[in-house]
Amino acid sequence: MIQCPNCSSKSLVVNTVKERPGTAYTWRSRTCKECRKTFSTREYSLEELAKLIDEGKESMNDLRGQCDDLLSDLAELITQYKTSND
Predict the structure, then answer these.
(1) Distance (Å, whole) CA 28 – CA 64
(2) What is the pLDDT of residue 50?
(3) What pLDDT score does 13 carry?
(4) pTM, full prediction
């Protein structure tokens, strides 16, 4: 079960779901019903994680690319957070 990283509540709302072509995950933007903070998750199926591990070197390159995507998403969310709290 996913919890809010701010207050640990499990009462969440999904705002946006993004399926990115060529990636092994689903990206979701969520808002906590308790503290109203917005955060995102990347969700991998067990099958996709197993494929990433089994593919060897190519999977590591894919994983690095996905980490770059994650950092980009985090930077965007931090900018949105700073804007909404000003």
Answers:
(1) 20
(2) 74
(3) 96
(4) 0.56
